[in-house]
Amino acid sequence: MRKLFLVLMLLSVSLLQAQDYFPTNTGVKTTKNTTVAFTNAKIYVTPTNIIKKGTLLVKDGKIVSVGKSVSIPNGTKTVDLEGKTIYPSFIDLYSDFGVKKPKRASRNNRRPQYDAGRTGHYWNDHIRPETDASLSFAFDNKKAKDLVNAGFGVVNTHMQDGIVRGNGLLVALNSSSSDGYRILDKRSAQYLSFNKSVLSRQVYPDSKMGSMALLRQMYMDADWYAAGNANNTDASLAALNNNKGLIQIFEAGSQLDVLRADKVGDEFGIQYTILGGGDEFEKINDIKETGAKMIIPINFRKAYDVSNPLLASYISLSDMRRWNQEPSNLSVLSKNGITFALTTHDLKSVASFHKNLQKAIKYGFDKTKALEALTTTPASMIGKSDIGNLNAGSHANFIITNGDIFDKGTTIYENWVQGDQHVVNDINVEDITGNYAFSIDGKSFDLSVSGKGAKQSGSLKSGDDKVKSKFSFSAGWVQLTINDGGNFSRIVAQSSANGLSGTYYNVNGTESAWSASKKAADKKDTKKDKKKETSDAVVVMPVSYPNLGLGNFTQPKQETTLIKNTTVWTGEDEGILKDTDVLIKDGKIIQIGKNINAKRAKVIDGTGKHLTAGIVDEHSHIATSAVNESGHNSTAEVTIEDVVNPNDINIYRNLAGGVTSIQILHGSANPIGGRSAIIKLKWGENADAMIYEDTPKFIKFALGENVKQSNWGENETVRFPQTRMGTEQVFVDYFQRAKEYDAIKKSGKPYRKDLELETLAEILNKERFISCHSYVQSEINMLMKVAESFNFNINTFTHILEGYKVADKMKEHGVGGSTFSDWWAYKFEVVDAIPYNAAIMHDAGVTVAINSDDREMSRRLNQEAAKTVKYGGMTEENAWKMVTINPAKLLHIDDKVGSIKEGKDADLVLWSDNPLSIYTKAEKTMIEGKLFFDIDEDMKKRAAIKQEKSKLINMMLNEKMNGGKTQAPKKKVLKNFTCETKQY
Amino acid sequence: MKKYKIVSLVFFFLVGNIIAQQTPAPKQTTAFSIEGATAHLGNGKVIENSLIMFNDGKITFVGSALMKIARQGKVINANGKHVYPGFIATNGSLGLSEVDAVRATRDFDEVGNMLPHVRSIIAYNAESKVVESLRMNGILMSDTSPRGGTISGTSSVVQLDAWNWEDAAVKMDNGIHINWPGSFTSGRWWLGEDPALKPDKNYPKNVQNIKDYFTNAKRYLAGDKSKKDLPFEATKGLFDGSQKLYLHVSGHKEITEAVNVSKELGINNLVIVHGDGAEKVADLLLKHDIPVIVDRPHSVPNNEDDDYDLPFRTAKILMDKGLTLAIGMEGQFERMHTRNLPFFAGTYAAYGVDKEKALQMITGNAAKVLGIDSFAGTLEVGKDATLFISEGDALDMRTNILTHAFIQGRTISLESHQTKLWKRYDSKINGKK
Questions:
Q1: pLDDT at B76
Q2: Cross-chain CB nearest to A823 (options B336, B426, B433)
Q3: Which residue of A has its CA nearest to B355?
Q4: Is the pTM of this model over 0.90?
Q5: Among partner residues A316, A711, A834, which is closest to B303 by beta-carbon distance?
Q6: On chain B, which terminus has fewer CB atoms closer than 10 Å, C or N?
Q7: What residue ranges define each of the domains in chain B, with the CATH number in brackets?
Q8: Is residue A880 within 8 Å of A916, Cβ to Cβ?
Q9: What number is the average pLDDT over the span B326-331?
């Protein structure tokens, strides 16, 4: 056995060879016998094809044959692996192995860079499909060792930088070989992400929706380029077209981004393979629907240290829950039939991979599936049949263990890569673990040895007392030094038939024969262990939608409902009706009247209460993952619909304030902003379900200080426009170009499809409507004139704080105004903002809404509407319209919502009092007849949160007490999105 | 120099325009009797069909209109209307900035960390257009407090109808504001750290710095002061009890330590500002008779799992513990939002606080918190005649419509830059009709 080991050692050293046609200058050229047979092993040819007591024959880095009866040629080295198991080595498809991440580009000055920094490439520096990671690849011996020790044999590595990252390469982790052998495929896949390259400071895109729009434009440009339409060369587009045939791997990193990446891919007929975030279990049905193959990290968070209740109170339930639920992710993915591979990506240390995987298995992840996710699945995802299995002809990448590789106690001995041996734990090291008894000078001792391989360690006791001692086990010899109050005695020994035997040297150096007998394994202990195992049986908290404290465990259902005997604010000509009933069926208002009878309807007593249509907020920035794309002065190509965030707690809080529909607007960082998302606040549903069916098309424009970057600091002075004069020219320029573009498009001549101009042409064709952020009268007037010169109308001026100065002109143009009730004095352009604005515009005949632009104010829009009664003397009925039917009109959704009218959607709020009173509360908020907020249910949720938190705190304390690692408590910081919020 | 001139000229035209002001009212010369209104005294009491009389700037009578007593001076029939003491904003920074985004107008945050000697009253712009916009909503007094640093500086209390800052001050240098360190700090996202809040390891050190500072100040004040130390001199009032220490602090642990450290230092006139979690240390605060300035209720809950209405219920929660409360203005757009003070109180009333108690938060108790309760805050004989008449419930937007307002008996204007613009453009639009 020992001899064989030495031979193998030599063998692997000799394999540090060059290609066989290379000259040899250090000796004579020899050929080696590289045929090795591994016999008597349990062999996982694939996760489902298992051979017991089989033989694996390996030659020249490949598997020659595998099976129960394999004929072993003469001269073959035979390794007897009785009792051992052989698995195919693992594959990691998402790695940066050997590819250094580039350093961030230094800046020449503090001015932002808006244009591309490269020539001969695509117009955006973050599109880098021409990157060939193999050119900068340098095999990293240290990392390779870590990966090999964890069982990996092959990684797919790439440059983790940029939105399009170019091709990666498939590398066998064979440190004994040369790149000529171990690079299995130089162009194995193309990688993409939403994140910009650090190599360029080009601002665009600075939002996720910008990245998505850029990818779309890029794909369209690539087609156009491929058809030979460009009169220049473009190294990026050429490379992109060249990489088309490769597998496309997209770094998403969270469930929402998985869906977003998949959406972009689908639009261009590309099915990305997607790197997930480990949170797929939260929206598993949506993930399943993508049909994407996934690469899943298993970086489970540590339990929070909740021993200090003051600090623990800062941790959100969603964070606690994730600690508890994350380990079940793999099991959930697997049970839902999603094809996925595992990756070490995101792990601080590869060494924690197995521990986390064991945890996932404890949480129900099937071992066969686990092995598949590390071998055959990644192999097939990357389109290789000769890795990830031990079939004849495959690379000789395999692991030798002493048992089930996913068990805690199992030792990986060797990981062979391309037929080269890599020792993880010396297979020849005897296992001497166990308990031994011996006595010296009549005193009896107990020695207990534990650990694996060369790392076996012993501890000494006499009776119940621990005895100071030093134990080592190396190269087959045990050394034990006993410290008896500064008097040292020593033992050297080897294992023997029934324990250990050797020599004892007493304090005086006198030697005598010594032996220790091995005790039979204690059955009671194993029983105890088993008991312990079952006692901490896994408890996984149920997932809510969204998966946070106030999420829904079950979604509200449409019910036939009769609201009886209440004061109904119709928002129609009927005005305010007292003692009236409203009947709702199939999500619609079907009858309004007195004494309505409806059998089988759920009855809500509205006595003393007020029923109104749900509030519509024309200007909101909640429920989104991004607000501004500020990288260009026009970003009509981006859309908030791409980044709707259904998990935002502000959705629930707005429902509690009686809001049912909102327009999520792009911010005001540029004159031509992005497209809106108009959504209903259907808490617990996904983004697509929230967006209006046949949604009206809107886009955000902006004027004034924000678009000319007045308050962005001294360095932001290069982007056009910097004045209101320039702002006009931006509009004229873009509309002129859109007009010319549209003309060519309509003529049937070939044209380069441009997402931005497409959107602007929709405005010219009156298919898309503008909601324009505006403050002072000069520019309000200007934009109306620009629109008129292009023969369309502005739909809405939002904010419009000086609307009262040009209300007559607005009326004439036919534009609506959506304003703040009383905001002013926060910047120079609002010094003339007055709270009477809404009333004056209303008097001029303009359709006026009161909006929020603020996650807090939006939940009190009823109060804001009431301020128009104080400032300017609006009637209560007209004041109320300013947050319901008027914004609905401005958003072109007044055929569905905004008033209580038979046939309209049952988007209703039941208030405890007059809805304009400061003392009122929304008690029930429904959308399409589904009760999404109920003040009584809310009380129950509060109690449930408290209960679940204490349960989880107990679980975390238990983990800590049992020696589990913990992390300091942390408090989730919720982003406050406003018009001016910029990402990154 | 030439350039400077042009800039000044431009500034004059821009800002010069802004400073078109209402004229501060002259001293009260005739007595007033307000008859028939529902009087909300600001101490929890209400008198229906009331009679309020005042002369020489002081209230001379508060009682029932049924009382057979001679009406003094000019009689205002206020049947069906409501009379309130002038509302008082606390922890405000009025007059210290005109336009938030314009740096030239920002005067609330001085350079440095320990600045007890920096006095806000010096920068108080009595002619601020923001200040005048508050009067028509019933806000007639406020403190004006500096911001930033650890010891931000010294605040003063002003009335809102004045020619200049000396005129405006009703209590000069009433207190010193200190921002107590938090035990949590956020990750530096720009260095790639998780932006979530994590326990701050520097917290004990930061607290020690404050202790050291005041210990040194005390030592200085007890010494011969041969070399004058301006900052230490400015802390004198804290140790002799003539000035309040406004502890801007939140959190169970932090509030406890802020109070205990102050007490140890011999600073006894304390007010807690913000005070998130103060309900958990209510016993300590009650024991030392320490009031709390709660934040504006119009804010979103701090934590994801918090009750949606938690910020609306802050006052209710603390009042149930027996604490004395006022409403603070600090936060986004705090100066312009000060005009919503009545509606902040109204919102607290909507969420559990008795209406008169909610009113106390912006009248009688606000005066206590600012140290002006001996002469202001309630409708009581002998106090300043700083009061107003509203068409209806002044805590509700729809009915907060003022007909008269008086500061120290002076009949003040309810006009402002905003009402002037309203009238100008209202007549343009409605004239055309």
A1: 98
A2: B336
A3: A919
A4: yes
A5: A316
A6: N
A7: 23-86+378-433 (2.30.40.10), 87-376 (3.20.20.140)
A8: yes
A9: 97
